[in-house]
């Protein structure tokens, strides 16, 4: 999840030595804390790290521009050492980037780590095109070769050494004659969308006269996408050696509906985003025969293609969980994969605006960013900045700041009780002192830490949400929310030896996954014999390895280190529950450790922490890699049925865990026998709720877990059968747990029975050019859904207890009204559907859900008001059914 905050930053660009006939930047790319800007007459190399500094530039003189033409297309080699530029007269310029020893001094005592760059011209050769009237597409490249699309429909291959291999035509290869079907869960902003034709490519699909306007290369998937000027899109397979063997580039499938104007690939999720002339973005699942997943657009917000123009560019976040869309005529928007609108520069129209207030027509676009459209954009490597170039602008780059919350993913623990959005140098913590009003606590990290360890890379909250662990490039820092105090390493040399790749909380202990380079190891310092053995072997072979470090939260120092556990490889995902730690390695090896603490965990004592391996699983599967795994503890009801006391349950090893894969598939893994059961798909995040809250007032203890995706939120309960986790017995409810498509769920408040969501707001000021982006938190109650679920499962006593716990909560009467209305509405729909069918006599003992709901609400003083309010909202023809269930006295 990504959310914009603060005012956009403006990075000024220099002007060339000569005026240009082109009024736009031709190339923009961010790689390894650097970004490259190529204009028609010069190029600039900038730092994209904490300090935005111009490191180098190259300006062409008037003679060069007149003889060889202005810069037309460019590409930066992935290793950042070379830059290739094609001019309008088809001269190929190859530049070399070298960093000098001259360090840039930013300010302060510590050096900045930035060095000036020297950009020099290595080669200038005219490309021997057979036709001089050609137009060209963008470049794509690997570290050896470049590829260029031509207006005659052919591709042209060049090496980074300046060798011209000539033009070649795509070789059609019809491997699959059947059309790929649309995915059954295709949605357009949550609404069903049409079929997405995908045909195999034959000779008549590609003609030499159709110009290639864009190439998109995905080396990970070994695919090349070719976009033609008529909107046709073709996917091509390439050799495992990349672009070297052009004879192996085969046209495979024709994608889309013939109106594509730009494309972008999310390689990890295997999703293709296609921008269209109609201003709509379509998402295709490349793992499922390129079936259409869903479409996103601004139509539901009152904007058509006449307002925004066609899509001009699409940029995925580094973790591929969201993507930014820029339009030719106006603005940009950031969407989650599930279709939630996370951020938009375009002001929302209408009186019920959430994103921004209604303003007078003549002021509507006065302070709106990118009001002339979006030309190019790139995320930085961490996802904290979105760099954007406005259409027709040569003067500046606009940088939007983003905070993110990687829920349920990766190697850092999370708690649903504490919701944290973290930016490059700060934290935004949702505080819920009163459930009526949620607010953000804005925490800037201490300058002494973040200036040397920028940016923030991992954040983990303790189970009670009162302590935060934050790790930057090196070391880590702790924050006590109650005391409002930071705790840091006292010895900076110890801090710099830690490269945190993951964080977990184990009670009052913070667990750090540390990455160690064998060149920076002091094996003799370790008290662990396994660690010394692995470190010696790794040093001998030149390997790098990982370890778990256990620090008490009261002291960050080597002298207080409780345990050091070497790991076999880089962890893919980690999780913790009570005294068990789960570590998963690639391809899918699961190790579970048991933690035993001997002695008291106090500054005055010297406790001993012992780690033992209790389970190892090696699972063979062809599925995508796990993005997150969470233990599923025994629930109170299941534990009591098995005669397990609460004290004994603390020592029970979790026997199951949930797996969320990178493709959004959610499944349940049995840790005893390694069996995996698929539950659902298209999931972005999930929360395990059972066994997580230590407080008796938790309103969601009955729930096993919740997940969120394009369907909204799904609630999962344990089944009453012999197998408490049989897939077919799971109850997935509820259709009305859908959120505003601008509200993204961050977590839960179990004692209030609400979901905490975040959405974007913009505040405007006459003294600033751009608005300030402000994340806004809101609470959405799910109490009515939980009550109805319990009644559906015939758990009347549990429903009454839950309602009594909630009676003093805000909006309790509204929840009761919503409960009765949804149940009554469903009853009316059921009666209408069955009115032509023969009625079945109803047994006296089988009470309807409507009657059960009225029986529940009758226990509270709000009963009569609730019934009357629901009656006013429904057709009078159905009142008899309502009053029959509610009792004649309510009339």
UniProtKB/TrEMBL annotation:
Gene3D superfamilies: YVTN repeat-like/Quinoprotein amine dehydrogenase
Listed SUPFAM superfamilies: DPP6 N-terminal domain-like
KW Coiled coil (keyword) present: yes
Keyword Membrane attached: yes
Name of the protein: RIC1 C-terminal alpha solenoid region domain-containing protein
Lineage of the organism: Eukaryota, Viridiplantae, Streptophyta, Embryophyta, Tracheophyta
Domain named RIC1 C-terminal alpha solenoid region: residues: 784-890
Single GO biological process annotation from the record: retrograde transport, endosome to Golgi
Pfam families associated with the record: Beta-prop_RIC1_2nd (PF25440), RIC1 (PF07064)
InterPro entries reported in the protein's UniProt record: Ric1, RIC1_C, WD40/YVTN_repeat-like_dom_sf
GO (cellular component) term, any one: Ric1-Rgp1 guanyl-nucleotide exchange factor complex
Record keywords, A-Z: Coiled coil, Membrane
Coiled-coil segments: 48-75
Subcellular location: Membrane
């Amino acid at each position: 999840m990504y959310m914009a905050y603060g005012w956009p930053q403006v990075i000024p660009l220099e002007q060339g030595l000569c005026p240009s006939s082109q009024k736009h930047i031709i190339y923009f790319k961010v790689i390894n804390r650097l970004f490259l800007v190529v204009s028609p007459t010069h190029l600039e190399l900038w730092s994209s790290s904490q300090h935005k500094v111009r490191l180098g530039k190259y300006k062409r003189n008037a003679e060069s521009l007149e003889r060889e033409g202005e810069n037309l297309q460019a590409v930066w080699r992935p290793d950042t050492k070379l830059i290739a530029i094609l001019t309008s007269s088809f001269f190929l310029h190859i530049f070399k980037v070298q960093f000098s020893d001259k360090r840039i001094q930013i300010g302060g005592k510590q050096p900045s780590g930035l060095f000036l760059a020297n950009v020099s011209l290595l080669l200038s050769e005219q490309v021997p095109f057979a036709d001089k009237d050609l137009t060209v597409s963008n470049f794509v490249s690997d570290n050896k070769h470049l590829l260029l699309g031509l207006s005659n429909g052919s591709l042209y291959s060049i090496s980074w050494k300046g060798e011209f291999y000539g033009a070649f035509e795509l070789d059609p290869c019809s491997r699959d004659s059947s059309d790929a079907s649309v995915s059954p869960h295709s949605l357009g902003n949550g609404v069903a969308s049409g079929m997405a034709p995908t045909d195999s490519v034959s000779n008549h699909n590609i003609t030499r006269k159709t110009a290639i306007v864009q190439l998109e290369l995905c080396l990970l998937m070994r695919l090349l996408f070719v976009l033609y000027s008529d909107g046709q899109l073709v996917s091509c397979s390439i050799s495992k050696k990349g672009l070297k063997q052009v004879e192996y580039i085969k046209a495979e499938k024709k994608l889309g509906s013939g109106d594509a104007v730009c494309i972008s690939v999310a390689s990890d999720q295997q999703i293709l985003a296609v921008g269209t002339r109609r201003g709509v973005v379509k998402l295709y699942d490349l793992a499922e025969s390129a079936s259409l997943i869903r479409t996103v657009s601004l139509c539901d917000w009152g904007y058509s293609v006449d307002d925004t123009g066609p899509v001009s560019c699409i940029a995925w976040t580094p973790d591929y969980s969201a993507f930014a869309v820029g339009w030719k005529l106006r603005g940009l928007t950031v969407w989650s994969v599930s279709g939630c609108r996370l951020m938009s520069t375009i002001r929302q129209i209408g009186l019920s605006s959430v994103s921004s207030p209604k303003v007078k027509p003549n002021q509507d676009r006065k302070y709106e960013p990118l009001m002339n459209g979006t030309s190019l954009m790139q995320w930085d490597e961490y996802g904290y900045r979105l760099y954007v170039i406005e259409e027709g602008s040569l003067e500046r780059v606009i940088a939007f700041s983003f905070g993110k919350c990687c829920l349920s993913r990766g190697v850092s623990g999370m708690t649903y009780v504490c919701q944290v959005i973290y930016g490059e140098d700060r934290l935004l913590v949702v505080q819920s002192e009163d459930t009526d009003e949620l607010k953000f606590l804005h925490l800037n990290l201490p300058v002494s830490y973040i200036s040397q360890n920028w940016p923030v890379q991992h954040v983990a909250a303790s189970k009670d949400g009162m302590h935060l662990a934050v790790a930057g490039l090196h070391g880590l820092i702790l924050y006590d929310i109650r005391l409002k105090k930071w705790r840091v390493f006292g010895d900076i040399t110890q801090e710099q030896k830690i490269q945190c790749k993951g964080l977990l909380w184990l009670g009052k202990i913070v667990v750090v996954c540390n990455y160690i380079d064998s060149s920076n190891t002091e094996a003799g310092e370790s008290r662990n014999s396994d660690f010394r053995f692995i470190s010696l072997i790794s040093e001998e072979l030149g390997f790098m390895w990982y370890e778990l470090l256990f620090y008490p939260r009261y002291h960050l120092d080597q002298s207080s280190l409780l345990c050091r556990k070497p790991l076999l490889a880089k962890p893919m995902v980690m999780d913790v529950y009570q005294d068990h730690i789960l570590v998963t390695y690639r391809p899918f090896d699961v190790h579970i450790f048991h933690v035993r603490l001997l002695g008291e965990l106090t500054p005055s004592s010297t406790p001993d922490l012992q780690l033992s391996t209790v389970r190892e699983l090696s699972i063979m599967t062809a599925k995508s890699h796990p993005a997150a795994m969470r233990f599923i503890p025994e629930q109170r009801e299941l534990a009591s049925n098995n005669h397990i006391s609460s004290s004994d349950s603390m020592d029970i090893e979790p026997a199951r865990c949930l797996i969320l894969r990178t493709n959004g598939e959610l499944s349940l893994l049995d840790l005893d026998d390694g069996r995996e059961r698929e539950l659902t798909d298209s999931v972005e995040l999930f929360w395990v709720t059972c066994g997580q809250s230590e407080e008796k007032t938790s309103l969601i203890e009955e729930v096993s877990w919740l997940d969120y995706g394009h369907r909204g939120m799904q609630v999962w309960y344990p089944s009453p059968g012999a197998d408490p986790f049989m897939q077919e017995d799971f109850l997935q409810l509820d259709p009305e747990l859908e959120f505003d498509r601008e509200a993204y769920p961050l977590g839960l408040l179990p004692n209030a029975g609400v979901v905490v969501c975040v959405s974007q707001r913009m505040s405007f000021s006459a003294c600033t050019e751009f608005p300030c982006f402000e994340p806004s938190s809101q609470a959405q109650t799910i109490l009515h859904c939980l009550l109805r679920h319990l009644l559906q499962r015939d758990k009347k006593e549990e429903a009454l207890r839950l309602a009594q716990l909630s009676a003093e909560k805000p909006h309790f009467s509204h929840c009761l009204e919503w409960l009765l209305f949804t149940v009554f509405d469903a009853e009316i729909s059921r009666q209408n559907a069955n009115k032509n069918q023969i009625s079945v006599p109803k047994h006296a003992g089988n009470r309807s859900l409507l009657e059960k709901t009225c029986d529940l609400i009758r226990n509270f003083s709000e009963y009569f008001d609730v019934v009357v309010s629901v009656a006013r909202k429904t057709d009078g023809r159905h009142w008899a059914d309502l009053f029959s269930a509610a009792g004649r006295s309510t009339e």
